[in-house]
Amino acid sequence: MEMKTLNNSNNNNQSDSSSSPSSPQRKRVMNPLDPEEFRKQGHMIIDFLADYYTNVSNFPVRSQVEPDYLRKHLPDSAPLFPEPIESILEDVQEHIIPGITHWMSPNYYAYFPSSGSVAGFIGEMLSAGLNVVGFNWISSPAATELETIVMDWLGEALKLPQQFLYKGSNKNGGGVLLGTTCEAVLCTLVAARDKKLSQIGRDNIGKLLVYGSDQTHSSFGKAAQIAGIQNIRAIKTKRSNSFTLTANSLLSTIRSDIKNGLIPIYLCATVGTTAIASIDPIMELCDVAKEYGIWVHVDAAYAGSACICPEFRSCIDGVEGANSFSFNAHKWFLTNLACCCLWVKDHNALTKSLATNPEFLRNKASESKQVIDYKDWQITLSRKFNSLKLWLVLRSYGVENLRSFLRNHVNMAKTFEGLVKLDKRFEIFVPRKFSLVCFRVSPSTIIATRSNNNHNNGHDYYGKLVNDGDDYLVNELNKKLLESINKSGKVYMTHGEVEGAFVIRCAIGATLTEEHHVIMAWKLIQEHADSLLASY
Amino acid sequence: MEMKTLNNSNNNNQSDSSSSPSSPQRKRVMNPLDPEEFRKQGHMIIDFLADYYTNVSNFPVRSQVEPDYLRKHLPDSAPLFPEPIESILEDVQEHIIPGITHWMSPNYYAYFPSSGSVAGFIGEMLSAGLNVVGFNWISSPAATELETIVMDWLGEALKLPQQFLYKGSNKNGGGVLLGTTCEAVLCTLVAARDKKLSQIGRDNIGKLLVYGSDQTHSSFGKAAQIAGIQNIRAIKTKRSNSFTLTANSLLSTIRSDIKNGLIPIYLCATVGTTAIASIDPIMELCDVAKEYGIWVHVDAAYAGSACICPEFRSCIDGVEGANSFSFNAHKWFLTNLACCCLWVKDHNALTKSLATNPEFLRNKASESKQVIDYKDWQITLSRKFNSLKLWLVLRSYGVENLRSFLRNHVNMAKTFEGLVKLDKRFEIFVPRKFSLVCFRVSPSTIIATRSNNNHNNGHDYYGKLVNDGDDYLVNELNKKLLESINKSGKVYMTHGEVEGAFVIRCAIGATLTEEHHVIMAWKLIQEHADSLLASY
């Protein structure tokens, strides 16, 4: 990098080129986009990251730092003068890497995966390097057109009904790339809200009502809250229905809400819930919703990826009755963060709420109505060239290989599930779906262990009275187990809670995970369970 | 990349490893994160982009493709089998590059700049490569802590009052990195809305009212619309006040609105408006707002960067009276898209509206209240490791060099402004602010040219009657001029409209722009004006 006027080592550069009037050439302060410097530093970072992937399984998966660890390693203020990339990279290695939780580790099983790939990464590089702002067509036609095409490609791979595709719907439907599901829900919710308010008057916003289940992702309630909708119904699900939202419970809730003067506008149905990957019955729910003019959004954030495999496509059967469908390609589709794919049947519903037409963006192409301006399909104005990475992923791997890749994770989850089932101390809490296994040390194990080991006058291992209830004890033991394995740094799993039960979630999907990692993870869990139960 | 089971050239691979049960080793379908493949492809892309920067000034700045150009170059469906990176890069070169508008070109002067840099790019690479999802502290402590620290660094460089800094405010204030200003406005607006509604009851949402001026960015009205606020007042500005929102006009509008039963909650003041970079008087506006308990957000999306220079800092004098302040580091601060910096005095106001606490994210660190969970400061749950690129920019260049860099752009804008002033056919429409020059062919030139050239019975060059009004003619000629220079591909500028006048905006700030580019741009404008006026 040309740092002619100022440098770190010498502050007495009063006589340098910028302070003295000089030729235009010499007046150049620095070129922060010098191609040769770009090349040098870019190659360094590629090697840094390649080495990182080589070694990532050696790091503790969940970061082991304490709160506020970083401030003591960094200066109090930004530097006044340039620092060399070598020093910065040293700091990344020494102070940043220990503070990250390694989502790229093969031993990462927490939350849902964030499955990066070479193709996803280089797509992001191209997008960051070209650095175009694709708010409307003219600001970079390729950014808009590639997005439309790739979303048609992917929609087709998912066998979405033609109405969701741009080319298949006479340009009424189509897909758009947003950052996260929260955005997909907020955009469609606002569309549904405004459609209703345009009929009944804006003053009735307080009567609007939206539906999800108690398994719906928390971003749904947050989106409704942002949109100024105060009535958010989280309909209770039951174990007997595999924690899905049933059409009957939706119907009876709607009827009672309408009786009470509320106006239902939106249902968020989920394919692959966060806690346990349950699958709401889309077709039946859409039938009910249709009767009441309710917008149905299908949130398949995690499980949507799997629907490119014929054997999983039935999970979204009935989506033709929905208004919108989204899944996160950054979760389990090899596309680096962030990449939420949203399709709508009627993009006019979105643009009626979200379009702006400020003078500074007016241009012939937009006025011709021959082009899409994606700014009107989303919350923000500015947007990156989002489709490059998804295009790279689809082309670099191909749909067939992507299917194999997903099946491979599902198979590893089957392996893990099989191992859990072989150990009678554990139970599979709900039948495995996709690549998520939900399990726990079973209540019977804990009761049996306690009656064998516990001779301390009605007090258990945790100093609680036994008659506090077994549920509490079962949950506490499983919490201890989870914390114990995560503390080891060898794997990272997280938990869910359904009907008061604390379950450990093993979400397989990190790109580097192979079968031997999964087997190792299970052995680790057994070892930690051994010692926990022994000391019980 | 190990593509063992499937490849492009051979579709008859029925006997390959994935189809036949085999050893776990052979069952591996592919490794989409193979470090050596990552290295190979990563280096290729670095060279591709370095070459792109070397040649970027040769491309037409504004893309010259026609709507729907891309579909004919790409297949109808995603490929089933992998394609080599070499073919994909060829397509990028042949079909994508011609379809992008080159925001990285030194001849780019449209909208506001998107000033990428080596540091901004490699920060983005590190973030994409580590691919962590930093929604809460535990999900990657470094992602949270570096953000807090860097936002304190940058806040200090801007001389923001201590209440906006985390460390300076006893942890009540602080900064957060969002994608765009739209998000900053929406988050703070929702906070202000809910604060008021908690006092007066949610049913009063229809009475809430927000203020901006007719120069406020369009995203403000959109954010209010998303938040369910129907009363959006765009107070008229005047040329006599340099198109700023005056305290008097705000005060009288508030008084009349309150009389009419409305409840003002929020003011979006702007430092560096989109059309002409006017600067609202923050201090006076805050004084008025304070009296009525109105939340003041200062949107300095473009001009905020310049405030790290002491000579520009006065533009945000009075910010201590505001509740929140934001600027886009991706505009004019060398940080690749997207990076909006938002500071608030009271982050509890944000989290009261935006916090969620779902079971699956519960963890000891969050419960200890010792850490920040940035998910509660923003709309979405998922978030990238946003601070890396800003950290890289601050360290790689240093605050002093960043100041020089910005001053260099301002100096180039002065040069351009000086050239415009020398040509009596043109006028500077409003005094230059920062690096934005607003100019046009002056009305007097057009009137003079018309009376010299026009002998066609009261019809002018465009076939309009002369008595349609001169304003129309002036605007039409300037539109023609702008379209003509943009069509040449040699520069790209866009326009603004104030008080009905169409002005050409020359926004200097692309990273690669040097003085000779600016001089060339002016010559080009003169040439096009010559021929337009000659044929007039």
TrEMBL record, chains A, B:
Cofactor(s) needed: pyridoxal 5'-phosphate
UniProt-listed InterPro entries: Aromatic_deC, PyrdxlP-dep_de-COase, PyrdxlP-dep_Trfase, PyrdxlP-dep_Trfase_major, PyrdxlP-dep_Trfase_small, Pyridoxal-P_BS
Disordered: annotated segments: 1-30
Record keyword Lyase present: yes
Gene3D superfamilies on file: Aspartate Aminotransferase, domain 1, dopa decarboxylase, N-terminal domain, Type I PLP-dependent aspartate aminotransferase-like (Major domain)
Compositionally biased residues, Low complexity: 7-24
Keywords per UniProt: Decarboxylase, Lyase, Pyridoxal phosphate
Keyword Lyase appears in the UniProt entry: yes
Pfam families for this protein: Pyridoxal_deC
Record family assignment: Belongs to the group II decarboxylase family.
The protein's name in its UniProt record: Tyrosine/DOPA decarboxylase 2
Species: Stylosanthes scabra
